[in-house]
Every structure is written in C-alpha cells, then in structure tokens.
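Reopening: structure tokens for the S-adenosylmethionine complex, inputs below.
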Amino acid sequence: MNVREFKFTGTDVAADISEKYGYDGPLLPIYAGHEGAVVHKWHHYIPLYDRYLSRFCGQPVRFLEIGVFRGGSLEMWREFLGPEAVLFGIDIDPDCAKFDGNAGQVRIGSQDDPAFLNRVIDEMGGIDVVLDDGSHRMEHIRASLDTLFPRLSLGGIYVIEDLHTAYFRNYGGTWREDGYRGKHNFLRGLTGMIDDMHHWYHDLPEQVPALGGALSGIHIHDSFVVLEKNVAHRPVHSRVGAP
Ligand SMILES: C[S@@+](CC[C@H](N)C(=O)[O-])C[C@H]1O[C@@H](n2cnc3c(N)ncnc32)[C@H](O)[C@@H]1O
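Re-run output (same inputs, fresh job):
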C-alpha cells in the first residue's frame, strides 16, 4: 500500500471537498484557491480543521505547526487564523529557514528534541495549538507530545495528522514484533489515554504522564486525532425536573 494510490485525480479540489464532506466554510476557498507555496493536505482534513480551529480565528492564538515543508501551510494558516495569530513552524530541514518571517516564524530543529521544543515555546510565550505534520514516525509523534502537551494552555488542542502511518512499517507503526496491536503504534496507544481520562473509575496505573490529568477529550477521525486539554473536573451527576 502506498499513499500515492490516494492522490486526487480530479481537477476541482473545492467541489470534491464540498460534495463529499458537505463543507462550504471559509477554509475551502483558502485551501482550494491557494496560489502561494505548495500546501499538501488530505481533503477530509479541511472541514476538520474548520471544526476544531475556527474558534481561534481572529485571536492571538499561539499556533505551532510541526513540518514546514515548502512553507505553504503556514501561508494557509495565516490567511485562516488572521494577523493576530502567533504562528510558528518547525522543521528539521535547514532549507526551511528561508521561509522564516514570511507567513510566520520558522525554527530549525527536530520534533523529538525537548530542549529545542521548549526554546521555541518559550519564544512563542506559550502555546494554544499544536499541529503535528512532521515526520509522522511513531516515536517522534510521542516524543513531541510528551514535551508539548504539558506546555499546552488549558483550552488548547493538540492535533496529529497523517496517522495512517501507524500502519506503515517504515514509520515505526508495525515493524516491532507486536505489530499493529503494539504499544508503539500511536493509534493503539490512544487506549492508554482513554484509560487515563477515565481514571476516576478504575485503579489502573497512569499510562501517559504527559497528559497530567488534563486530557478533556479525544477525537479520532481517519488519520487525524485531536486531543483537548482542559481542567478535568471530578465528574458529578444529578437529577433535575419533576420526579
Ligand atoms: C508532510 S511535510 C509538512 C507539510 C506541510 N505542513 C504542509 O501542509 O504542506 C513534513 C515535514 O516534516 C519535516 N520533518 C521530518 N522529520 C522531522 C523532525 N524530526 N522534526 C521536524 N520536522 C521534521 C520534513 O522535513 C517535512 O518538511
């Protein structure tokens, strides 16, 4: 299996997204009509971005994209989020430094380097949104999460995309002896996060300490996971209304 098999072969990107996903929101013309540097996104992500990110539009949101590539996605985020956004991108490729200061700030380093990530977040003055579109390797995804989730603000979100790589041997998803079901497969690892989020109801040990008891929601879409961070209040229930 190769992702090239999924390449859109039509000519009208906007029509494909709008017809398949019923999405006609503001990110559609921004993505489909983009004429700047190349941006590479799966079509079903466009409505998902709008669903999870639109509340940050026009705000001074501190937004970090892991994976700059040709700089096009930073241009897209600038147009979508607006001039107030504190937009940073990181990439391991030194060539990406040439995009620094265009749509956002670009810093060069690896997503699995905690000292580098912490320096970038310090420079940003904190962080509200992480979008991991970097190496897509299982161990890198987890390393970034372990450093960045504790630094995410309450009310912030952590998005990881292209998680089909969890099924690819060369991204560390399946090569280990335990295969698809192994703990190194990021998608399987979500079950540990689900257990942690429900810690009130069992006495299993904590599995993902980086979540710090502040994982308030997990949304799983095809290859696209959103982790919400917020105060996790001890749940209570009540009955209201006439008996
Ligand atoms: C899928 S591309 C990013 C695409 C871009 N966000 C877009 O939407 O057009 C992945 C990028 O991650 C970068 N990358 C690979 N390994 C990395 C690592 N360990 N740390 C940071 N960036 C990495 C690559 O150099 C590449 O530019």
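The mean pLDDT is 95. Helices lie at 13-21, 27-32, 45-53, 72-81, 114-124, 138-148, 186-197. Marking as resolved unless the reporter disagrees.
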